[in-house]
Design brief:
The protein is an alpha/beta fold and 326 residues long. The chain is built from 9 helices and 17 strands. The radius of gyration is 21 Å and the shape is globular. The N and C termini lie far apart (55 Å). InterPro entries: MeTrfase_TRM5/TYW2, SAM-dependent_MTases_sf, TRM5-TYW2-like_MTfase, TRM5/TYW2-like_N, Trm5a/b_N.
Amino acid sequence: MEVPCVRVAPAAGEATRRDLADANLIDDGYEIAVVDDDLYIPVTDPDAVPDDLEVVTRDATERETQTTPADLLGFDPSYERLGEAALIDEDDSDRAREIADAIVDSDLPLETVLNKASKVKGETRVRDWELLAGESTAVVHREYGCEFGLDLAAVYFSPRLATERYRVTEQVQEDERAFDMFAGVGPFVVPVAKRGAEVVGVDINETAIEYLRENARRNDVDDRVTAICDDVREVAPDYEDWADRLVMNLPHSADEFLTAAVTIAGDDCVLHYYDIQHEDDPFGPGERAIRAAAEPDYGVTVETKRVVRSYAPHELNVCLDVRLER
């Protein structure tokens, strides 16, 4: 069957395979193959593969030995993988239990199954979970060479944003000063610090900040990371004119923090502003809000307008990469 594959030299094969696995992009249904001195790694989503990797389409051999949840259920269940956990979203308790049992009984390396029991809620954006298999809601997630410990019941984390985080991280230059205004457990902070930047991460969730500090140590970047538990609007005056790069990943209400962002921004600062808007005008509200907060003190240049993902019917999660120049 014709499937998308990443083609690399065998010498780079293991590192590439590991990075693709960390991003949950390897298609486990097909064999990795070596043909004519090239290694072919099947991938699930060619559009999510980093731009520096080559994607080709070729006839791949299906794996015959791996039993999948779909083999046991007779249908293909929907779930996300986060570390060794599978995350499902099922209202029917019997169906949820059936899917959980199939995931655990399959050959997938998944020991924990969690069912979403509420929407994201509250100031810290956490949700309730039903533990269907495994011992806890704590997991270790690997993403593009970084490792993150987190407890889904206590912090917000989305594995779907791995490719977007990688896109931003790849723009970072050594010795930058970066500021994540809603840092969580550090999925932006840690990889940006690994690029050689000095990073400040702020979050209102005390548990998230504890994990951020742990994850900075886990990835050997704690000497370049400052983690602060507070409302970023209270912290902003302490970092006036400080940042070369700002991350604002609070898409439902980031506009309420733009005054703080402008305070933190240095003379030449790139702002990664995340928003959720109607598909008829997904970028306009964010750009207008940024201009209202930053002009005339800063010149505002929108460098990139990017749809990150579909969020809900007719609503898009988007990112504006904006340069602020005093």
